[in-house]
Design goal:
3 domains; 7 helices; disordered C terminus; isomerase; S4_RNA-bd_sf; Pseudouridine synthase
Length: 257
């Protein structure tokens, strides 16, 4: 028995691929097919029970109600930490989708600079994202940072105490010097807030510009051995720990982790 026909752009939105407006753009670009035939006309209707709808050759289906997805990505340099980019650069969402990720409308939790690397969390769980980013929750973020010059104790103390930036004094940080050389030093820096390009600005303020920056962890979730460009689903244990960090009840909902 055939299902109730649904407009193609609405079907794509129901699948979590994009908003209805963005789905219309995908159709006009010739990226959507129905039963193997590319459709570019607006207003096309599909039968959810019989028709096969694909985006860039990959079948998409409407999501079960309430399905939440959590992905950890090791963002490489040169990828944008956003769901879309007006300049047409590759985003973290594009990167994961092109490498077997679910065709679901995801967004990154927080940002990581274009030239930085490391852990980025992607999800469609708005309350969790809000809780992790809320300024009063002070969820820790740890970065491995290669900087210019030999970082001396006064510079470390300044970073740990708080640095005066153009947007105010930073919160106290935790700093571990892993290697100190004449030309370069390697630090692990843990922050308890998330300002734009904060690590880079702090290091610059104490006279040690950043050469390379890798985010190692967000709250209890660690990058581990995930290689640059690789991604994985969050484990149930990690999700429970993240929810505690975000001060949310530990209730596991349906969907892959």
């Amino acid at each position: 028995m055939a299902g109730k026909p649904v407009r193609l752009h609405k079907y794509l939105a129901m699948a979590g691929v994009a908003s209805r407006r963005a789905a219309e753009a995908l159709i006009r670009q010739g990226r959507v097919s129905v039963n193997g035939e590319v459709v570019t006309a607006m207003g096309w209707a599909v039968d959810p029970d019989r028709d096969r709808v694909a985006l860039d050759g990959r079948e998409v289906r409407p999501l079960p109600p309430g399905r939440l997805v959590y992905i950890v990505l090791h963002k490489p340099r040169g990828v944008v930490s956003s769901a879309r980019d007006e300049r047409g650069r590759v985003t973290v969402v594009d990167w994961v989708l092109a490498r077997g990720g679910p065709p679901i409308r995801l967004f990154p939790v927080g940002r990581l600079d274009f030239d930085s690397e490391g852990l980025v969390l992607l999800t469609n769980d708005g309350p969790l994202a809000h809780g992790l980013l809320h300024p009063s929750h002070h969820v820790p973020r740890t970065y491995r940072v290669l900087v210019q010059g030999a970082v001396d104790p006064p510079a470390v103390e300044a970073l740990e105490r708080g640095v005066r930036l153009e947007d105010g004094l930073t919160l106290p940080a935790r700093v571990m010097v892993r290697k100190r050389g004449r030309a370069e030093s390697l630090l692990d820096i843990t922050l308890y807030e998330g300002r734009k390009r904060q690590v880079r600005r702090m290091c610059e303020a104490v006279g040690h510009p950043v050469l390379r920056l890798v985010r190692l962890s967000l709250g209890p979730v660690r990058l581990g051995r995930l290689a640059p460009g690789q991604w994985r689903y969050l484990s149930g244990e990690e999700l429970s720990a993240l929810r505690r960090a975000a001060r949310l009840p530990d209730v596991r909902q349906g969907g892959r982790r």
